[in-house]
């Protein structure tokens, strides 16, 4: 994909630097697919009465009532086709939040809209239909059925719907091929490695061709090498499928690699929502900046994000696209004396990228 | 009593030394009746006029049940008749299949469909054992069934097997059903657990009494008693197994849009397969154990042969043969069902081979059975091909009598004179007030006033129901057996914890001991020590020893290596380390083992009343022969209460101790 139109008016002899993005960014103006507003999940006796009496309690008030708030006043809009990451440490409420969004856990208050329908108002029968046809979920510990083969596991959601055997197995086989396990279709889960097991989990969650895909720490139980490989696999699949994805992780590097936008949770509340670059450049609190401190900034920040205004008449070297990551263009920027021009998608110069900036962002997270 | 005397909380000394007062009251309650028998005779021997006629009430209640209770459309009696009729018919199926075949028409033109051929069954068992557990299991299965065949036990064994099969099917289905119900309806869970606890403490025999009364003597009441006895563990296992299914699988079921039924049968139950199969193994073993005992109420089969042998003066040889057939059946069924737990699903060629073996086994079974239309020898092995070692065993028995009699008799007399009789005399003469006070004091020290009240009420049942002498005989036999079993089990368990070879050997030994139905223990014991308390004692010790070994071994193995190193580095000698570091750490676990020993001793006690003890078990046995359900039930309740008492007290001690150690 040619991202750069040559900025001929600056340096006609300099060729543009080709850059391929690590992931396809969902359009920022895509319509929201899943919306939750003022979502609460409070555990304890008479939690809903408590919340009715005091709709926005402080954490101290919740504790004083002998209750525990796993999700506090969460409001999110997840866009069509984006990879939305919910990131937080263990106990931050991210698992509960995603279970509230899928209504595996009944929220205490708030609303969840999917395709303009309030999930929380649905009858059990309606909910079963939505889950059978619109949602898929991948679990941290794979949740494979030990008594079924790979094929049987992947065909399971289709079987539950009542699809005929031949049809569901054909569809399941396609999914198994998609995740590269065609050779292993007759195996049982215990005969597979962890990475292979999660591929089965992924294939199974995709079998019903859901529009909405929940992944609950899908790669946390895998060792680092396999995890990396699975992340690539996941990006490959998403390039093909363009699902709306809610992805839970406690690993900030994973969040950056995979996410279009990231929501950071702490103690049940959402502290900040934004792209990785926004989180790094404008952390909403010390908590967020603590996460971003050790990030390889060069792999997060874009040329457009860190460029500075151009002085009139300045000599600029090679043009780099505003959307390119600093790390991707570093080599060429450092190769020339002059700062690089940063151009937007239309080829207009929006700033310059200085060598010092590149070095600062490459060398360390710590400022 | 030092536990009693210690203040319960060192940091906040009580104003009153309550511990001392309690200890004093207990001492008074024990000593005063001895010191002043004239004025406190009522406190020593429970006055007959205070006895509450609980047996009569129970009897009246059961009569009311069987005569007058009506549910409007049908009476209780109709219901029991219906149930027994149903099982009667159901039992015909496995009986025809395994034991009798089916004969149409009268003698002239009779057409006989043979039962499953012995040759086919042996072939099938061998092939299926191979499928389940390889060559070793195949050899075991072959030898076990071959023994039953050539020693002429086939007919009896097949009667027993057909009852086992029906009882296991019913017990497993009912157990899974109830377990699912309790899992699904949390409100029921507490009730179910309490009922299970109670049912598992009531000794096996006590089930027989009301059943004989309500259903009558015969295979059906034997079956029903067996099912009642073997089903509770399946309920428990099912509840536990379903709870242990990872929550993610439950979420998976919901996220894929399973309806509740789909979630249960497609996800939860299959995922709990391994645990459920462990339950099935338990049901099989309990069923076999009980079906042998149920011979007392006419279940027939191998149990009848054993029982008959015990009743006859010189039938021991035959009895041993039947007993060994029980052992063979028990071991083969146990190992096969255990291997089934371990059998993991496989794919491809291995799976195809499994299927193939299964069908080959089935084909062999059917082919031999079909052939036996033509060759009747395949249906029933003619007597001339059988071997009876009955004579040999009789010879062994005589040899034992001649050569070991003096030794065995010396041991027997020594034990009786120096241990059994004194303890028995002491306990029967113990003031009943004193017994209540000792239990109350101990329970108070362990769990406070409320706990003491509950425990005292349990023990009070024995004098109040007029069961003093038999109850104290039970306590005496039980406590001596438990002490001996523990004294034997502890060192064995200790050895097991120190060496891998010993651990394996003891494991295999315990497995086998636990597989054997309790009834079979009586045979060799009677051979050596004849009828009497000593035989009962030895049989109980052998039967109940297993948990003492297992829990000691396990408890000592669980001591963290860091603690042992700390002990060594502090300069402990080996003995010091054991006494000061390892034993205290493992003690709660060992006490749980002792708790199990008590439970098993109590249940064996009832069985061993066959060899002539005069305890509560004897009363149940008498009640069965007299069809007096009141007496049998009250004795059963007394044993159950003793069991609950021991269980709660030890449980409380273990919990406190573990809490204190932060475990």
Provide tags for this entry.
heterodimer; A: 367 residues; alpha/beta; Rossmann fold; CBS domain Like; six-stranded mixed β-sheet; four-stranded antiparallel β-sheet; 14 helices; disordered N terminus; B: 663 residues; mainly alpha; MetI-like fold; two-stranded antiparallel sheet; 26 helices; 2 strands
Textual characterization of the structure:
The complex is a heterodimer of chains A (367) and B (663). Chain A is 36% helix and 21% strand. With 367 residues, chain A is of the alpha/beta class. Among the domains of chain A are: 32-134 and 210-292, Rossmann fold; 297-363, CBS domain Like (Alpha-Beta Complex), CATH 3.90.1280. Chain A has a six-stranded mixed sheet, sandwiched between helices. Chain A has a four-stranded antiparallel sheet with strand order 2-1-4-5. In chain A, β9 (261-266) and β10 (269-274) form a beta hairpin. The longest helix of chain A is centred in the middle third of the chain and has 18 residues, at 224-241. Chain A starts with 31 loop residues before the first strand and ends with a helix. Chain B has a domain at 399-429 and 466-663: MetI-like fold (Orthogonal Bundle), CATH 1.10.3720.10. Helix content of chain B is 80%, strand content 1%. Chain B has a two-stranded antiparallel sheet. The two termini of chain B are 25 Å apart. Classes of the chains: A alpha/beta (367), B mainly alpha (663). At the A-B interface, α4, β6 and α5 of A face α11 and α12 of B.
């Amino acid at each position: 994909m040619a991202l750069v139109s040559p900025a001929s008016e600056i340096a006609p002899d300099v060729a543009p630097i080709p850059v391929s993005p690590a992931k396809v960014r969902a359009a920022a103006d895509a319509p929201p697919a899943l919306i939750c507003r003022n979502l609460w999940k409070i555990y304890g006796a008479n939690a809903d009465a408590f919340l009715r009496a005091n709709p926005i309690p402080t954490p101290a008030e919740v504790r004083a009532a002998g209750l525990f708030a796993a999700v506090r006043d969460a409001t999110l809009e997840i866009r069509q086709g984006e990879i939305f990451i919910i990131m937080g440490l263990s106990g931050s409420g991210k698992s509960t939040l995603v279970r509230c969004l899928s209504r595996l856990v009944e929220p205490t208050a708030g609303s969840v809209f999917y395709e303009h329908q309030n999930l929380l108002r649905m009858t059990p029968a309606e909910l079963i239909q939505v889950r059978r046809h619109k949602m898929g979920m991948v679990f941290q510990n794979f949740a494979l059925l030990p008594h079924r083969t790979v094929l049987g596991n992947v065909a399971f959601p289709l079987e539950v719907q009542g699809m005929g055997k031949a049809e569901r197995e054909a569809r399941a086989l396609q999914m198994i091929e998609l995740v590269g396990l065609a050779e292993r279709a007759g195996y049982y889960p215990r005969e597979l490695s962890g990475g292979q097991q999660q591929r089965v989990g992924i294939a199974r969650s995709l079998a019903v061709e859901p529009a909405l895909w929940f992944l609950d720490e899908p790669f946390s139980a895998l060792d680092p090498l396999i995890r990396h490989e699975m992340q690539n696999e996941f990006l490959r699949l998403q390039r093909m499928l363009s699902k709306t994805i809610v992805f839970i992780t406690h690993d900030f590097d994973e969040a950056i690699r995979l996410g279009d936008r990231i929501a950071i949770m702490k103690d049940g509340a959402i502290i900040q929502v934004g792209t990785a670059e926004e989180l790094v450049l404008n952390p909403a609190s010390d908590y967020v900046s603590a996460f971003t401190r050790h990030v390889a900034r060069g792999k997060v920040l874009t040329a457009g994000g860190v460029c500075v205004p151009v002085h009139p008449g300045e000599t600029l070297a090679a043009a780099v696209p505003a959307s390119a990551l600093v790390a991707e263009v570093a080599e060429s920027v450092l190769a020339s004396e002059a700062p690089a021009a940063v151009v937007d998608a239309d080829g207009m110069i929006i700033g310059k990228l200085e060598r010092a900036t590149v070095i600062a962002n490459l060398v360390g997270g710590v400022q | 009593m030092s536990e009693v005397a210690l203040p319960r909380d060192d940091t906040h000394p009580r104003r009153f030394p309550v511990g001392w007062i309690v200890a004093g009251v207990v001492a008074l309650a024990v000593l005063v009746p001895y010191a002043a028998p004239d004025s406190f005779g009522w406190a020593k021997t429970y006055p007959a006029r205070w006895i509450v006629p609980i047996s009569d009430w129970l009897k009246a209640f059961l009569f009311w049940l069987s005569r007058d209770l009506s549910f409007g459309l049908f009476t209780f009696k109709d219901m029991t008749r219906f149930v027994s009729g149903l099982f009667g018919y159901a039992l015909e199926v496995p009986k025809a299949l395994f034991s009798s075949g089916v004969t149409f028409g009268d003698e002239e033109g009779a057409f006989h469909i043979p039962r499953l051929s012995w040759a086919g069954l042996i072939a099938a068992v061998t092939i299926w054992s191979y499928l389940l557990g390889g060559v070793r299991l195949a050899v075991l299965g072959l030898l076990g069934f071959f023994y039953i065949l050539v020693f002429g036990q086939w007919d009896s064994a097949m009667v027993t097997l057909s009852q086992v099969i029906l009882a296991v099917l019913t017990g497993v289905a009912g157990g899974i059903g109830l377990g699912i119900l309790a899992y699904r309806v949390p409100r029921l869970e507490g009730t179910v657990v309490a009922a299970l606890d109670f049912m598992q403490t009531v000794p096996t025999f006590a089930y027989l009494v009301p059943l004989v009364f309500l259903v009558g003597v015969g295979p059906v009441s034997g079956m029903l008693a067996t099912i009642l006895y073997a089903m509770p563990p399946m309920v428990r296992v099912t509840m536990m197994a379903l709870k242990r299914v990872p929550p993610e699988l439950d979420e998976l079921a919901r996220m894929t849009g399973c309806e509740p039924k789909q979630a249960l049968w497609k996800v939860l139950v299959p995922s709990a397969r391994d645990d459920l199969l462990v339950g099935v193994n338990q049901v099989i073993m309990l069923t076999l154990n009980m079906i042998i005992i149920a011979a007392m109420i006419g279940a027939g089969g191998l149990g009848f042969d054993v029982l008959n042998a015990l009743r006859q003066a010189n039938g021991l040889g035959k009895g041993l043969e039947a007993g060994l057939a029980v052992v063979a059946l028990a071991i083969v069924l146990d190992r096969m069902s255990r291997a089934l737990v371990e059998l993991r699903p496989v794919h491809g060629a291995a799976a195809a081979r499994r299927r193939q073996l299964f069908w080959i086994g089935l084909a062999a079974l059917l082919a031999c059975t079909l052939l036996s239309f033509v060759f009747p020898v395949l249906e029933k092995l003619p007597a001339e091909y059988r071997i009876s070692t009955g004579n040999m065993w009789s010879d062994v028995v005589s040899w034992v009598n001649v050569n070991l009699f003096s030794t065995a008799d010396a041991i027997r007399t020594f034990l009786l004179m120096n241990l059994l009789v004194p303890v028995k005399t002491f306990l029967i003469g113990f003031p009943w007030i004193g017994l209540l006070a000792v239990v109350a004091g101990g329970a108070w020290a362990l769990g406070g006033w409320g706990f003491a009240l509950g425990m005292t009420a349990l023990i009070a049942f024995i004098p109040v129901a007029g069961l003093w002498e038999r109850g104290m005989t039970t306590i005496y036999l039980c406590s001596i057996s438990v002490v001996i079993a523990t004294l034997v089990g502890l060192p064995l368990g200790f050895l097991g914890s120190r060496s891998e070879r010993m651990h394996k050997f003891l494991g295999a030994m315990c497995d086998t001991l636990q597989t054997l139905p309790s009834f079979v223990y009586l045979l060799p014991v009677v051979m050596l020590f004849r009828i009497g308390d000593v035989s009962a004692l030895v049989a109980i010790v052998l039967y109940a020893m297993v948990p003492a070994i297992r829990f000691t071994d396990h408890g000592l193995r669980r001591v963290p290596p860091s603690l042992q190193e700390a002990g060594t580095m502090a300069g402990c000698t080996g003995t010091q380390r054991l006494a000061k570091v390892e034993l205290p750490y493992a003690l709660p676990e060992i006490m749980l083992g002792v708790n199990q020993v008590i439970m098993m001793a109590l249940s064996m006690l009832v069985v061993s009343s066959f060899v002539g003890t005069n305890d509560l078990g004897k009363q149940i046995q008498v009640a069965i022969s007299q069809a007096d359900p009141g007496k049998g039930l009250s004795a059963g309740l007394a044993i159950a209460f003793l069991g609950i008492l021991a269980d709660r007290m030890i449980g409380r001690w273990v919990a406190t101790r573990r809490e204190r150690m932060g475990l």
